[in-house]
Amino acid sequence: MEWTGYFDEERLNRGYDYFINSRVFNLVISDNSIISKVEGSHKRVYDVKIELADDEINGMYCDCPYALNDLNCKHMVATLYKYDEINKHKLDHVIGDNYDNTVQFNEILKNVDEIRLKRYIYENYVDDDEFKDKLIGTFQGEITPEDLDNYENMLNNIFEVDVVELYNENGYYEQSPFQRYLLDFIDTKIDLLYNRGEYDYVLQLLFIIYDNITLKEDVNQFIDIKEVVDSCNYYAHKVIEKQSKEDNDVVFDYLINKISYDYNPVISDYLLMICYDNFKNKSYSKTLLNAIDKVLENHDSEMLALYKYKLLLRLEYPINEVNDYLYSNTYYDSILEILVNRKIDDNEIREAIDLINQRDGELSFDYTLLLLSLYQLDDDKANTRRILKQILYEDNIKSIDYIRQLKSTYTKDEWIIERRNIVKFLNENSSYDILNELFIDEKLYDDLFINIINNCPTDYIEDYRRYYEDKYHEDIIKHYKRVILEKSKYSKHRGDYSLLVDYIERMLTYPDSGEDVRELIDTLINKYPNKKLLKELLLNINT
Fold first, then answer.
1. DSSP secondary structure string for all residues of 340-389
2. Are 226 and 172 in contact (CB under 8 A)?
3. Other C-beta atoms lying within 10 Å of the C-beta of residue 271
4. DSSP classification of residue 127
5. Which of 101-110, 112-121, 410-419 has the highest mean pLDDT?
6. Is the dihedral of CA 405, 410, 415, 418 positive or negative?
7. How far apart are CA 151 and CA 167, in angstroms?
């Protein structure tokens, strides 16, 4: 089941962090749903439900503030990663339990005719590049400098591809397959060299890729840099794990030079990650910190600033120096988040609020929600009210949950005035579903009925009838009659007629409706004598 397309990159990254840190628990999987609990920020636990239909996502729900705005949240991501993990283990188990045909395979292989086998391989795999690369890697001799030259030429040819989109003769844009070529090269050629233990060659090719990405103009417009560099970094990490310290010093020097003297925001941040994750001793860390300081003198990079903070912690700098660094860099969202979370963990709520307010108007909606929760923790009703009104009126986030929270900040008399403003605002914005919820909350059933009759689909009458049918059943019958007479003008097919019959049968569920229904049926039959199927369906109604 493919689900990543439902989420933006930030939600995917944060949700994955929650998953790998075991913050998903109480997972219940059925044919129709996935239910879980996820520990979010500041140890708050949220309930998540993913609805399924035919092994596809049919709906996603979470009770966190972010998801209340009909947005897909990181807690859903974490749940889906956990679901995928469980499914993979189940599949592995099923496959492991299957019949083992190894004996039969070995018997055929022992007796098969060599010429037939070669012909079979050629006919079935001549177009399978992955199979061909594995075959070459298994049966060819030692890797030679000439082989490496060929690989370098292949890489250079890939990077010489014209990545500008071409308008072809068929009248649509056709994008260059640059990224696919590059990923295929990494997955086959570099993978082959790694598996053959040719680590020097692997690094040489990776360095060529890093250098070319740095040099190619506007490269991030044509390839997904993260996907390509993540693939490269995967092999760089594996090689670093295998090599001696002396060999790794060469890798470290290359990376430091690329960061310090050839800084490029497209690629350098990813090289920084390799350095930080793989070279952890004090000497490496100090060198990396110095390189970051050098780059920050001339470049504004949030990633560099964040890794400087991580290095200060790794090198055990005095806490006051670390704090000074954080406070002087709160214009970076990630640094601000670190500092705010530290204040919250230390129960310094007012300080956390002040930090966020210093960036008023610059931050994402996530911070608006965080600020709201902090004001609520601080029992600051005035500012809680201000933020809730901002969410409702300025951000135009229409949710009954925020309206309920807003009500809790008012006295009874104050709320009546504010409720009137909310109703006016929701009407002006055609937010009739939220109006229905508000009227039910406030027990304003007359207003609920008027809103449904005037502004909502006819089906809503039945959805909410328990709130008003005793008082308004005669009005409902009249309304159905008007709707049926209007729709009958344009009805031509069985589906149209069935809808009219359905409305009539709904009328019959209300008291004292029989006479009105019989009169309506007579009117329709007399008005449309040529609609014989409609007449047949009407006469079958038991009035």
1. HHHHHHTT-HHHHHHHHHTTTTTS-HHHHHHHHHHHHHTT-HHHHHHHHH
2. no
3. 24
4. T
5. 410-419
6. negative
7. 31
> Rounded distance, CA 181 to CA 185, Å?
6
Task: Check the CA dihedral 353-357-359-362 and report its sign.
Answer: positive
Closest CA to 317 of 289, 356, 340, 357: 289
Cα angle 43-47-53, degrees, rounded to a multiple of 5: 145
Q: Which residue has the tokens 């860099």?
A: 329
Which range (126-140, 171-185, 524-538) has the least confidence? 171-185
DSSP H stretches of helix in 186-318: 191-195, 199-215, 225-242, 245-261, 268-278, 282-296, 302-314
**Residue 29, token pair as written in the block:** 């999987």
Give residues with Cβ within 8 angstroms of 174, minimum separation 6.
165, 166, 167, 168
What is the C-alpha separation between 282 and 314, in angstroms, rounded? 8
Measured between alpha carbons, how far is 332 from 52 in angstroms, rounded to an integer? 39
Beta bridge partners of 302: none
pTM exceeding 0.70: no
Helix-helix angle 245-261:199-215, to 10 degrees: 0
What pLDDT, in 10s, does the model give residues 524-539? Answer: 999 999 999 999 999 9
Tokens encoding 24: 């998903």
Token pair recorded at residue 538: 């009407």
Residue 406 CA, chain-centre distance (Å), reads: 29
In the chain, the amino acid numbered 497 is Y
Strands 166-167, 24-29: pairing kind: unpaired
